[in-house]
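Support case: uridine-5'-diphosphate-xylopyranose complex. Customer-provided input:
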Amino acid sequence: MKISVIGCGYLGAVHAAAMAELGHDVVGIDVDAAKIAQLADGRPPFFEPGLPEILTSAMATGRLRFSTDIAEVRGSRVHFVAVGTPQRDGSNAADMTYVDAAIHSLLPHLSEGDIVVGKSTVPVGSAARLADVIAASGSGAVLAWNPEFLREGFAVLDTMTPDRLVYGVAAGDETAASILDEVYATAIASGTPVVVTDYATAELVKVAANAFLATKISFINAMAEIAEVTAADVTQLADAIGFDNRIGRRFLNAGVGFGGGCLPKDIRAFTARAEELGRGESVAFLKEVDNINLRRRQRVVDLTVAALGPVVNEKKVAVLGLAFKPHSDDVRDSPALDVAVQLRGLGADVVATDPQAIENSRARHPQLSYSASVEETLRGADAVVLVTEWPEFAEIDPVWAAGLVRTSVIIDGRNKLDAAAWRAAGWTYQGLGRP
Ligand code: UDX
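Agent response - structure generated as follows:
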């Protein structure tokens, strides 16, 4: 199948490479010439495990190329739109500028029988509007909406073998779903379920899934808040309720909360869209989900300040982690970076480390000090804060670390460390929602 992918950011670059890896003939298009040059050279402009390997292997077969010229989409049967929908400036709503621009740039190059497939996360109702735009162009192309559920750090795996495929198609459209079945034939053959539905349901599935995950995390973090005033242990509580199959243990890790390019922005955009639709009260709880999440960051800051004593100025805080989660260099809405910035704002001498996210953090917050070395980060620290649970941080030897710091206090913002081992090494250990 000949496929084009419009937008080669996180989602599009992974999608283009994965489609080529599955045997399709793919062109990836982006307006950013620097990004296209990097991708064409087999070097993704962001960290994602496994992506450089499939980029290189797919390009070697000649099935994958990248271009800034939208006319190169001609001849493709399927055109995936994978551009970003960031939070609009000064509002919680999604910014549809890039999606609208991508669709308009495609219009002159579409032919009868083509399908345009939206992958971006959009406010419900967008697909119906865009289908009208495509119909009015007279090309004979049709629109389908096929939301993407990939997780950063597992993006290649999630794209090649998704948990499910969702196709939103126009009423009476018989062909779009069968073309998408062909595109995803490998995943479908290995058992991936397919849900074929209308546009609005497909758009909602995506935001509902992210809203549910965010709610699950904030639920356990709310329990952590209660645990903190009752000397209960939220990690044991999560294990115990997680044994109930209806609840499940995944996404019940209490800590500094969720961040990244999706969950925070998607729950805010969903709330904004529901309010536009006159149904704000239906998802009003998502504001509380957001509030609980932000309170957890504050909790980590407060615990650190309390550990430092009455004078914060010139005390050294070692911050372990900057990315919003491990196996990523993404610092968008990162709880870890937020905590570091807040502590710096209070006057602490913050030194932060991360295996992948220092460069992205420095670009946003040059006022912070960074070190690539955990040893240098810990040396002389008056408090240590773990905020991204990279495996290399969980493996730090507490006895070795105690020999480096000035004061052996650690705030484990991800409940990831072996509390008993750290205490045995002389540390004052403080988790979140744990006695
Ligand atoms: C998420 C969705 O999982 C994915 O399906 C969607 O396509 C995009 O948004 P992602 O942003 O990559 O993916 O990260 P995810 O693994 O979901 O984690 C989100 C945040 O929640 C991270 O900051 C993580 O640290 C936090 N988290 C996750 C918790 O605090 N506790 C948990 O138990 C799980």
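Residues 149-152, 210, 213, 217, 251-253, 255, 257-260, 262-263, 324-325 surround uridine-5'-diphosphate-xylopyranose (CB under 6 Å).

Case will auto-close in a few days if no follow-up is received.
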